[in-house]
Write a structure and sequence with these properties.
It comes from Aureimonas jatrophae. With 312 residues, the protein is an alpha/beta fold. The chain contains eleven helices and ten strands.
């Protein structure tokens, strides 16, 4: 049996696959994002999630053949790497596991743990790819000075466009009225109170504005179309940088997949596809499995077992 753990900013998902690829357990628990909740609480939540998943599968943790723990912010705080690498031993009672960043789960799920690159564009943005056993990430620097092409980045761009249009520094477009209505503004300057005071700059709420931009773009709004086209260009830059870092042959056709809410936008996905067509050689594929299934699939690969998950 193979355990996959996909940690995220809002929840932690657990999946156990058996040797035939059948799903024996799928459970969810609270976020294990240690930068927000602390290491002790993160470890407690992961331990409970493993216990719950194993209970559903009818096994004990020490019976797991192998496990992969995809943890948010793994590798981004060097002072805690040793602790993150060692705490699963206490949970499992053995050393048959590996830890890594949660972006690995997205790659393994979207491409079935095959060579290629996965682009994640949700609240933040990051890419992860593998070539001949070597993995590399690009992006994921956070909303203050990174996360280009993400929902937060799109939402922030919309707020910037709103201020410029309100001032007259740019001609008004329907996005101005759509944001005013969505935020229930009495006057346009009320947006300062909403975003900075009521929301306290909350990244999730700002990221939620990406849906307003997508709706406006679908109606032909030029400002929104510009923002989404630029988001697609930024995501394509992540992809090309990852390809170069992985040293793919210049003539190789590299498999590319995607995950995250931004790609639910038809406009972004179509614009991203056009960016890829400009080269070098890429093949855009729809994601095969969810990230948590990818985590379990990757656990099997680490143990030397090639599985085809049966998720239906």
């Amino acid at each position: 049996m193979f355990l996959g753990v996909d940690g995220g900013g809002t929840k932690t998902a657990f999946c156990i696959l058996d040797e035939t690829g059948a799903v024996r357990a799928r459970t969810e628990g609270e976020t294990c994002y240690f930068l927000r909740i602390g290491l002790d609480e993160a470890e407690r939540r992961v331990a409970k999630g493993v216990e719950d998943a194993c209970h559903v599968a009818g096994i004990a943790p020490d019976e797991l053949t192998y496990a992969f723990f995809g943890l948010p912010a793994y590798g981004e705080v060097s002072s805690v790497i040793d602790r993150l690498n060692h705490f699963p031993r206490t949970i499992l009672g053995h050393d048959r596991y590996e830890c890594g960043n949660d972006t690995v789960c997205g790659w393994a799920g979207s491409l079935g743990a095959a060579d290629g690159i996965n682009i994640v564009a949700g609240t933040g943005s990051i890419s992860y790819g593998v070539n001949e056993g070597v993995g590399r990430r690009c992006g994921g620097w956070g909303e203050i000075f990174g996360d280009e092409g993400s929902a937060y980045w799109i939402g922030r761009a919309a707020l910037q466009a709103f201020s410029r249009m309100s001032d007259g520094r740019e001609p008004p477009s329907p996005l101005l009225e759509r944001l005013s209505a969505y935020l229930a503004l009495g006057v346009e300057l009320d947006i300062v109170d909403v975003v900075l005071n009521q929301w306290a700059g909350d990244r999730t709420r700002i990221a939620g504005l990406a849906r307003v931009v997508d709706d406006a773009a679908a109606s032909g709004d030029p400002q929104s179309i510009r923002i989404l086209d630029e988001a697609a260009r930024e995501l394509a830059l992540l992809l090309r940088a990852t390809r170069e870092a992985l040293d793919f042959d210049e003539n190789a056709v590299v498999a590319v997949s995607y995950s995250g809410g931004v790609f639910r936008s038809r406009h972004v996905l179509d614009a991203f596809r056009r960016e890829l067509a400009a080269g070098p050689h890429f093949e855009l594929r729809q994601p095969l499995y969810e990230p948590v299934v990818g985590a379990a699939l990757y656990a099997a690969r680490l143990a030397g077992t090639v599985l085809t998950p049966r998720t239906a």
